Amino acid sequence: MFTLKISIKVGLWFSLCILLIEIVSMTFLHRNLVHTRIHQEFDSLLARGNSHSGVLEINSDSHSLSHIGLMGSQSDAHVVVTDTTGEILITSNKIDRSIKDILDKPISKSNLLRNGKIIQDDWKNEQYIATVTAFNKNGKISGYVYMFKNTDDVQKLISQLNKHIFIASILILLTILFFIFFLSKALTKPLITMKEATKKLSIGDFSVTLPKPSNDELGELSLSIQTLANDLNYLKQERNEFLASISHELRTPLTYINGYADIARRKNLDEKDRVQYLDIIQEESQRVSSLLKELFDLTKLDQNTFSINKEQVNLNNFIRSIYERVLPAYKNKGIQLVLDCPSNILIDIDPIRFEQVLINLLDNSLKYSNETGTTLIKGVKQNGEVQITVKDQGIGIPSEDLPHIFDRLYRVDKSRSRATGGFGLGLAIVNQLVVAHGGEIKVKSQFGKGTCFTIVINQ
Ligand code: ADP
Predict the structure, then answer these.
(1) What's the pLDDT at 289?
(2) What pTM value is reported for the model?
(3) CATH number for region 217-302
């Protein structure tokens, strides 16, 4: 289907509105000008008729009459003076058919005629417009002064006015159209830029740079598109880095597996060595499967395809059962594990998912602590919030790494993590699970001194 460009559409709408406004205002102006002009003509005709009749009231002898006749013949208006019976006393010009018709019309003898009266006002169709003024003698009407003006002059005047208004309208219209052309282009330019930007986004090109947005709705839209493009770009980079890290993570164990499988296949190999190599292969394949399991968990968390089945649990009992499970490992490493939680705190959580959260944090405390020190698990309830803290006196996290430790596959010390079996996914999972519970997790750490994770859940 034929689609109009937005700039043309905007331009057309503007032009239509301007055209309507112009037609209405020009019609109004034309009517007013014509009205005023015609009234001026009538007023001037009446004024002249009244003035002649004033003269005749003072002196109506033949000299005055011929003087009035002469004045009429020198001006653009005809003068006819009659007596009360209609007898023509003087005329400035030849009396034609149209003048005669008007003269023959009966007129009211009212005194008002002394101020003059319009007796022919149809300037459009008749040849003359006309007025009549009575003049008195001894308190009685003694005659009439008729004034005639040819409507050709008026019509010529009006047609000239029409021509001027027409030319002015066309000039105004052309000027406005010229401005509308640039205005609609300027107005729609940001929209077109945004359309092109979104087109680029839709084909996966996120390197979109929109001009600095203006301070209006279009500016807000442009800013939103720019933010979206930046986010998508960031996500794309993050995904690429994530995929690169995963392939790197998988490559190391698979290289081991491949290499040791080759050696273990050798015929002349000592049985003890073969078992050792097979153990390594098993260990590495377990590593791969635990990486895949953690990745799978994260994917499920990402897609929200897991459900949180909350139930009310007693926090002390809940933490204690976990405490007892991890205690042997802590004892084994010589680290003290302390539990501090009042027995009356109730909390709405999914116990299976939340257990994963605490186990991950406690595992980390154990992994990243040297053979001394204490780890504290504390639960408190204050101001409607339940806070669960896991605080250790381990190796700590350098401040520059702190903002990233909840990122996927982020590890502070890769070699140490590898030795402890970490992939840098544990805290990412913990964070997702806490957020899914409607809570948040914060971390404080001092490198070389210890780390403290605090989970805050509104209850
Ligand atoms: P990993 O499986 O490598 O432990 P995590 O996501 O659990 O991955 O942790 C990310 C990184 O944060 C770890 O590699 C480690 O460097 C650091 N970290 C996590 N917990 C602690 C802690 N309690 N003490 C010191 N460093 C920690």
Answers:
(1) 93
(2) 0.55
(3) 1.10.287.130
